[in-house]
Amino acid sequence: MRGSRTLAAVLSSTLLAAVSLAPDKLGAQQAPAPAVVVAPAAIMDLRETADFTGRIVAVQKVDIRARVSGFLEKVNFTEGQKVIAGSVLYEVEDGTYRAAVQEIQGSIEAAEASRELAVLERDRAQRLISSNTVAQATVDTANAQVKKAEADIVRLKGSKQAAELNLSYTRIVAPFDGIVGLSAVDVGGLVGPDSGSLVTLTRLDPISVQFPVATSILLDYRERSVRGEVPAGGDVEITLPNGMTYPKRGVINFVASDVSQGTDTITVRAELPNPDSLLLDGTLVRVTFEQTEKQEVLAVPQQAIQRDQQGAFVMVVGADSKVELRRVDVARSSRGQAVIAKGLKEGEQVITEGVGKVRPGVTVDAAPAAGG
């Protein structure tokens, strides 16, 4: 009986010691503060942008055609070559057209001789009429012959100009600087006005991009611009099909005055420099419109924005490393940043990574984002 009491006393004291030591052990094993990454709410130049799908369009593009008939004697270019305005692309045999010019020139010289003779006859008749040697009808006839000879000369000179123009058309020239395509004819082929296109000449520098803009977007932008909410004007940036951003920017130079009824869009066109011919006619590209003037706004990284049924919020880490849930108004997003219209101040730290590990009121181990 006495042994039982002694065993009970030992067990009791052991349990009391375990209970008294438990709080210290629990405190020693308390979980560490969750690690998070934070970034400051910062003022930055975050101009408004809008993305569209567009197509590259050559500023000038024409089909070169023959204006006179004849056999082709020379092709003076290499397909795909850059040519300058006035370069002779094709030469059509010109023997027939040179002969026509010479023939008309001979007719002009003959007509000029006839005019000189008619002038002599008129002058003689005018001298004789004073002595009543000839009738007035003779003088009138002489005057008419002079006028007829002069008219023949005018007509023949006009014919000569037409013949010289046809002769010039035997040398088919480039009307502007550009790149020639594939030639549809070879030396020896018969060409003429009905032969169709001989080659296509395309001007690639500068070049244009055309893109449709929804009527609602354009009207909204104009209204905001009038209210002073956004600055007027902007640049155009092109992203190529391989994801490359074209290094030169363009300027809008045309906005259509009519709306496409099928798509309810308005065609907008911008012009870009293209000295290296990197942009090719017909290429499908992504067009980004960005305002020209700076627009300083308060923004945080887009990944810091969380949403629930009540709207957008961020987790703010205070100076005491405690987390606070803060409701915010997000005006827009651009280039991975969320523009904050209300709810944050510059410099406040928001959680960008690890937000799923925290809740309001907890203490965290905050580290700045890379580059922050």
TrEMBL record:
One of its GO terms (molecular function) is transmembrane transporter activity. GO terms for biological process: response to antibiotic. It comes from Sinorhizobium fredii (strain NBRC 101917 / NGR234). Keywords: Coiled coil, Signal. The keyword Coiled coil applies. Residues 1-22 form the signal peptide. One of its GO terms (cellular component) is plasma membrane. Residues 102-170 form the Multidrug resistance protein MdtA-like alpha-helical hairpin domain. Residues 132-166 form a coiled coil. It is found in: Cell envelope. NCBIfam families: RND_mfp (TIGR01730). Its main location: other. Belongs to the membrane fusion protein (MFP) (TC 8.A.1) family. Residues 61-191 form the Multidrug resistance protein MdtA-like barrel-sandwich hybrid domain. Residues 297-356 form the Multidrug resistance protein MdtA-like C-terminal permuted SH3 domain. InterPro entries: MdtA-like_b-barrel, MdtA-like_BSH, MdtA-like_C, MdtA-like_HH, RND_pump_MFP. Residues 206-290 form the Multidrug resistance protein MdtA-like beta-barrel domain. This is Efflux transporter, RND family, MFP subunit.
